[in-house]
From TrEMBL:
SMART domains: DM10. This is EF-hand domain-containing family member C2. GO terms for biological process: regulation of neuron projection development. It is found in: Cytoplasm, Cytoskeleton, Flagellum axoneme. It comes from Electrophorus electricus. GO terms for cellular component: microtubule. One of its GO terms (molecular function) is calcium ion binding. The gene is EFHC2. Keywords: Calcium, Cell projection, Cilium, Cytoplasm, Cytoskeleton, Flagellum, Metal-binding, Repeat. Gene3D superfamilies: 2.30.29.170, EF-hand (1.10.238.10). Residues 631-666 form the EF-hand domain. Residues 75-182, 226-366, 428-535 form the DM10 domain.
Length: 748
């Protein structure tokens, strides 16, 4: 009974199908039209009636725990079998068949097979890869199928293209893999012996060459010790011969070929010609001089007999017993020791010393530890000091000294390294500036002030006198840049004069320049910081040295110091004024100079950081913008408003910096960052309306900036003010560092 035509009972088989392509069944092969798609599927890839789908990959399934296909899971996994096949040989008296051994490789990823025969020496057969890697079909009538894993086992015959191979063994990986897939692996089978190969082996073993081969292999020694040379310092006493004298030699022993080379050490003005070599490189015989030999008497091989013509085409037989061979002994590395004598063609050469490589070589190979050198040189005479004539007064002392050191005068050498290290580098000037007062009985000269600059690059000094109104003295350059000699030195002498150095300049020091004394009363902040940072070079700025001087104060002074501090600080705040501290150290007789007192005060000072004045910063910024004629403030306001999407009137610092850079605002980067920092709120955002209003010199001009105010407000563009003067000293910390430690040491 037929089913009713209800939904779901349709007879249309194409419902649900998505592929309707048809395979190509006809094609041209060698110019002939023929059916080539007998094994191809039908419409949509479905198999035709009576047709079975063919495998295109490995028979093995993908792993249970892996989603990778077989060509990935079994990549680089190969089964290896040992096999042989028998080949008949026609028209040969020595053999009727031949057994040829080979290797069969089965690739698990795609069931391909490769057959390789190992190459044998002088086989006369084309060996190597017999069958290239590909899938091999089964013999007829199953030639539509291919060999797979289950066709291989030990002691089993397989036919590959009408050639029968017998599998005899397999490797450990193959045996383990076959057992895992359920194949019972048979025990290894024996390979039959090839009669012809056995016959050739017997002939080779019974063969004796007419000319025995003597192998002299020196390649290994060359490769191991190439460019390895032992160096010995030697001595040859040639004083017994006429006009002879002691000779120093260098002996080089080449480990690559056991050869020796000797070179002579020739000093300047020795009267000898600089010959390239004392002994040419070669093997050095121990017993020399030796009797002269005829050509061909000393050879590497001993010839027993010669057949045929001489030269090309002749034959000879070597004497394995080496009858009549001349044996010579040559020096080896084991014969060269410190203190030993080497016979160099009748000359007794004493080995006195060697280099570090030679010592390490003998220590590692022969275990020698004693390398005491042999003294062969007489002690050098004391060098007589060269008498230098006194300075004549012409030119500089260095120039006059160079004219006495050679026939061709050379300019004096400068300390180039010091010049490069201490020369000006950016903002680092490497110049120490001091303020000095002239010491004189004249009331006019007492009031004169000088700026003394010391250049660390070449130890030169310059002096400049600032102009003072109504002083009656014309200011300007007082001393040209030059080195200044210390006072009290003789002018015309043979020794070099002493010059002022950087360590001689400090606050409180007295310099005598051109017979006029000057006292240093002040120095700038850079000089103080430089001397404190390089305290190992400047003892006057070394806080450790200063504290050690304070610790040496007698105990009787301790009570007086504490009473003075109590009177100076009635509120017990721990701080006293600088002038009181200075007078205290002067009365304590601690031997501190004015510069040491300043260094100590700077170390224990109570510094108050002054906030930078925003008004002066804006005045400086407006002055820069006015000079550069910058007036694009309205355009910047539109750009700020465009970036302010929420119309809050605030932008981030990065956004403001980007807009200022886009408009090429002619302000230094450090000054711009300091200004933006002053307009930041608590959330780190900037009020750009206030910022533009502050720098707009057209609408909101700032009061004119006076030069004195600009010099007084010396600002660091990082936003921190320069350290002010020392006004108060934290004496409580100083007492703990000095007197408390002294009391502990005394009580202990």
């Amino acid at each position: 009974m037929a089913l009713p035509m209800l939904p779901g009972n349709s007879v249309n088989r194409n419902l649900g199908k998505e592929k309707f392509h048809k395979s190509q069944h006809f094609d041209y092969c060698n110019g002939v039209s023929m059916l080539v798609g007998a094994e191809k599927p039908g419409i949509g890839g479905e198999a035709l009636p009576g047709q079975s789908a063919r495998r295109n990959c490995s028979l093995l399934p993908r792993g249970e725990d892996s989603a990778a296909p077989s060509w990935v899971a079994f990549d680089k996994q190969v089964l290896c079998f040992d096999a042989y096949f028998q080949e008949s040989v026609a028209q040969s008296r020595e053999e009727t068949y031949r057994v040829r051994k080979c290797k069969i490789y089965f690739y698990l990823e795609d069931d391909t097979i490769q057959v390789v025969e190992p190459e044998l020496k002088n086989s006369g057969l084309p060996q190597g890869t017999l069958i290239h890697r590909h899938r091999i079909p089964l013999p007829a009538p199953n030639d539509d199928q291919f060999y797979n894993l289950h066709h291989f086992n030990i002691d089993q015959e397989i036919v590959l293209y009408s050639r029968t191979f017998v599998i005899t063994a397999c490797d450990a990986f193959t045996c383990n893999f076959l057992r895992k897939v359920g194949v019972r692996v048979r025990p290894p089978a024996a390979t039959p012996t090839d009669p012809y190969s056995k016959l050739r082996q017997e002939l080779e073993e019974s063969m004796k060459p007419l000319r025995p081969y003597e192998r002299l292999d020196t390649l290994k020694q060359f490769l191991d010790h190439d460019r390895n040379v032992l160096r010995f310092y030697c001595f040859w006493d040639d004083t017994q011969s006429m006009f002879g004298d002691p000779r120093e030699l260098l002996l080089h022993y080449f480990l690559a070929d056991d050869t020796i080379e000797i070179r002579e050490v020739i000093y300047p003005n020795s009267g000898r010609d600089a010959v390239p070599k004392f002994l040419k490189r070669g093997k050095l015989p121990k017993h020399s001089p030796i009797p002269k030999r005829q050509p061909g008497e000393i050879t590497n091989h001993t010839v027993l007999n010669v057949f045929g013509p001489m030269g090309q085409g002749g034959r000879y037989i070597l004497d394995s017993l080496k009858t009549g061979a001349v044996q010579e002994e040559f020096y080896k590395d084991c014969d060269l020791t410190i203190g030993g004598v080497v016979n160099v063609w009748g000359r007794r050469v004493i080995v006195c010393d060697c280099d570090d490589f030679t010592k390490e070589y003998y220590r590692s190979k022969y275990g020698i530890e004693d390398f005491t050198p042999v003294q062969f040189k007489a002690p050098s005479p004391t060098k007589v000091a060269r008498q230098v004539p006194p300075y004549t007064g012409f030119g500089s002392e260095e120039d006059s000294l160079c004219s006495c050191q050679g026939l061709l005068p050379k300019p004096p050498q400068k300390d180039f390294r010091k010049l490069m290290e201490k020369d000006r580098q950016g903002l680092e000037s490497n110049v120490l500036r001091f303020m000095g007062k002239m010491q004189s009985d004249s009331p006019v000269n007492k009031e004169r002030t000088f700026i003394i600059s010391f250049y660390l690059s070449d130890d030169t000094i310059t002096m400049f006198e600032p102009t003072q109104r109504n002083s009656g003295v014309i200011g300007g350059k007082f001393l040209e840049r030059s080195r200044v000699k210390k006072p009290g030195q003789e002018l015309f002498k043979s020794e070099m004069s002493e010059y002022y150095k950087a360590q001689d300049l400090y606050v409180g020091a007295t310099l005598i320049i051109n017979n006029q004394p000057f006292q240093l009363v002040e120095c700038d902040e850079y000089a103080l910081n430089y001397m404190e940072q390089h305290s190992e070079e400047f003892p006057m700025a070394n806080i450790g040295t200063i504290l050690s001087k304070l610790k040496s104060i007698p105990d009787e002074k301790h009570k007086e110091i504490k009473q003075f501090l109590a009177l100076s600080d009635p509120s017990n705040t721990g701080f006293i004024p600088y002038e009181s501290f200075r007078s205290l150290l002067a009365d304590a007789h601690a031997g501190l100079s004015e510069h040491e007192t300043m260094t100590l005060a700077r170390s224990y000072a109570a510094r108050e950081q002054a906030e930078p004045d925003v008004g002066i910063m804006l005045a400086i910024a407006q002055d820069h913008l006015r000079r550069k004629h910058f007036e694009s403030f309205s355009d910047m306001l539109r750009a700020f408003t465009h970036e302010d999407r929420d119309r809050t009137g605030h932008l981030s610092t990065k956004e403001v910096q980007v807009i200022c850079k886009a408009f090429r605002l002619p302000l230094a980067g450090d000054l711009l960052r300091a200004l933006l920092q002053k307009f930041e709120n608590e959330s780190g955002r900037i009020d750009y309306h206030a910022f533009l209003s502050g720098i707009n010199w057209r609408e909101n001009p700032s009061p004119p900036l006076l030069p004195d105010d600009a010099l007084k407000f010396d600002i660091d563009w990082n936003g921190e003010a320069v350290s002010p003067e020392v006004k108060s000293i934290n004496y409580s910390v100083l007492l703990e560092d000095v007197f408390v430690i002294v009391d502990k040491c005394t009580n202990g």
